[in-house]
Amino acid sequence: MRLKDFLDLPFTCHLFIGIIIRVALIVYGDFHDKLYDVPYTDVDYKVFTDAARHVVKGHSPYKRHTYRYSPLIAYFLVPNIRWGKNCGKLLFSVFDILVTVAVKYLVEYQLGSKKNTKNIPVYCALFWLYNPLSIGISTRGNADSVPCFFIILSILFLQTDIVKSNWKYALSGILLGISIHLRLYPLAFSFPMYLSLGEYKINRNTSIKDGIISLLPNLKQMTLVTSCVGTLFLLTYYMYKLYGYEFLFETYIYHMFRKDTRHNFSVLFYYSYLTMDQLTFDVVKLLAQVFEGIILFVGSLAFGTNPKTLPFALFFQAVVLVAYNSVMTSQYFIWFLSLLPLVVHNFRLKPANALFLTVVWVFSQAAWLFYAYLLEFKCRQVFILIWLKGIVFFCANIYVLGQLVKSYSPGYAFGEFLASVEKIK
């Protein structure tokens, strides 16, 4: 079967294949964990399951040491205790599949009635469905597919007419609020989403008064903000009533000051290792966050003010958040990989260039993983080498993002790539 013939299978067939792949890997994971030193199941999955066990007994999920997530994740994994240990993996995989469906509908809206774009929404959805990282993350038991789904669904309501009138902005805000409650990082998405609903006519001839007036929130923006903040507040307040300050600290405050010296791709890995026991004011981390904030702000203004470029603004935000974070693990890559299918059809890249960027990103990551394996499983003292590979990986992330920004062209739809696919047998 030619690649083109496979890609053109009915969308439901692809979904079925995607489900089979995920179920097979979940089953395989049980055997792998028994046979190999490096487990297939994510260590966090065991933490989730233990937290769910405490919930079933009527206790706080935070009785499980290192559980630092919303109690909702523990609630989701209660079936693990009642029915079977793989229920959570199946649930996360379901959210994984739902992301695929949401991507297809959102790209269909983006393309509208453009000619020769019939199959592009499906191709974009398959970019997520068959992505090895997305498959691995969910089947290993990581929960990041859940907030990813709520983010995509929030964009879907914001930018389409599935729900008409201002209710769609309220629903979008509610979903964004839920995703922020589950994971703090979508908070950065709220600013470009807010900007995308405004009308800005500011140029060098605009007076200060007119400029300020144009920035005042309209009804759409107020609806989005109110519903998002209201949802986030209600969820947070309810969990606070149940679990007190422990919930606030473990779920939110801890992550602001977290120093992780294991499984950390960050360029600040070695610095965090050397200063692990120091509680003094961290100037280096503060400066990194300031630079990160400036880039996020500029990116929001550059791409967030136009609804057509909003998905790329969110993708840009996610890459910056991951690359500049003081803690970066493999699951964080899902933050931007889940948004990449929404914009992949807008990159003017030849297949060879796309392959080159993929190789740069994958091999720089693989080099880091090799030395991390030597450290964790072979007890080799390779901290410096891991740190150097972290710098290489950081540069790779920034380089790839820069190339994608240069090649980004709203309205472009795969062009040269589709022509190349036609020739592949």
Describe the SSE topology:
Blueprint: H1 3-7, H2 11-35, H3 43-56, H4 71-76, H5 78-82, H6 87-111, H7 120-129, H8 132-139, H9 145-159, H10 167-182, H11 190-195, H12 208-215, H13 219-256, H14 269-274, H15 283-303, H16 310-324, H17 333-337, H18 351-378, H19 383-407, H20 415-423
What is shown here, in short?
With 425 residues, this protein is mostly helical.
Count of helix runs: 20
Order of helices and strands: HHHHHHHHHHHHHHHHHHHH
Strand content: under 5%
Tell me the helix content. Answer: 55-70%
What is the radius of gyration?
22 Å
Average per-residue pLDDT, rounded, comes to: 86
Poorly predicted residue ranges: none
- Large-scale geometry: globular
Amino-to-carboxy terminus distance: 8 Å
For the report, how would you describe the main beta sheet? Answer: none
Number of strands: 0
Q: Determine the structural class based on helices, strands and strand pairing.
A: mainly alpha
Features:
425 residues, 20 helices, mainly alpha, globular, 0% strand
Explain what the structure shows.
The chain is an all-alpha fold. The chain contains 20 helices and no strands. α6 (87-111) packs antiparallel against α7 and α15 (283-303) runs antiparallel to α16 (310-324). The longest helix is centred in the middle third of the chain and has 38 residues, at 219-256. The chain is globular. The termini are close together. The mean pLDDT is 86.
